[in-house]
Structure formats: structure tokens, C-alpha cells
Amino acid sequence: MTTSSTPETGGDVDPAVREELARLRDSIDNIDAAVVHMLAERFKATQQVGHLKARHQLPPADQAREARQIARLRTLAENAKLDPAFAEKFLNFIIAEVIRHHERIAEDTVNGSAPTPH
Predict the structure, then answer these.
(1) Cβ atoms within 10 A of the Cβ of 1, count?
(2) Residue 58, class by beta-carbon neighbours within 10 Å (0-12 exposed, 13-18 middle, 19+ buried)?
């Protein structure tokens, strides 16, 4: 508990509170870094999917898979005590970005300018 109403970086905050806040924020920062790295790995995989789809003239979006993934993520979120609506919004954001990438890859493939996937 703080000893006054000064901002948390101010001088009157109990040092133990400041220390606990720093510890929790360090943990949050580590989690944020892990999330970014996991998203990077996910997008590397979805780029490969995009190239495969483009080579075989498959559509960029797969609505049936997206629906299954959303249902799956909502269940995972519920089990993890995370708001399933938030999880769905997050996945929808990612899916939209993946589809955008797949559309670009397909367009580049048609135009003969698609880079080779790693």
C-alpha cells in the first residue's frame, strides 16, 4: 500500500511496493517478449502456408478452418480463465493479417515476383 497519493514513481511509495511492482512488471515484460517471439514463429509458418497455397492456386482464406480455430481458441481461453471474447478478437486480428499476407503472396506468385519460402 502506498503511503501517499503521489505518482508511483514518486518519493513516498513504500520501497517494498515499488520492489513488488518492479518484479511484476519484469514478469510482464518477459511474457510480452515471449508473445512477440511466438507470434514471429507463427507468422513464419503461415508464410509457408501462403506460399504453398499460392503454388497450388488455393484460396488465401479457409473459412471452415478459421471457424474451427476460433472455437478451439475460445475453449482454450475458457480453460485458461481468459475472456473468450478477447481471445476471439485477438485471433480474428491475426487471421486477418495472415489472409492479407496470403493474398499478397498469391498476387506476387501470379506476377512472378514471389520470393521463395525458407
Answers:
(1) 6
(2) middle
> What tens digit of pLDDT does each residue of 67-108 get?
999 999 999 999 999 999 999 999 999 999 999 999 999 999
- Axis-axis angle for helices 15-55, 84-110 (nearest 10): 40
Contacts of 91 (CB under 8 A, 6+ apart): 69, 70, 73
Confidence class for position 2, pLDDT limits 50, 70, 90: very low
Question: Which one-letter amino acid corresponds to residue 65?
Answer: R
Among residues 53, 68, 66, 62, the alpha carbon closest in space to that of 102 is found at: 53
**Cα 88 vs. chain centroid, distance in angstroms?**
11
Sign of CA dihedral 41, 43, 27, 9: positive
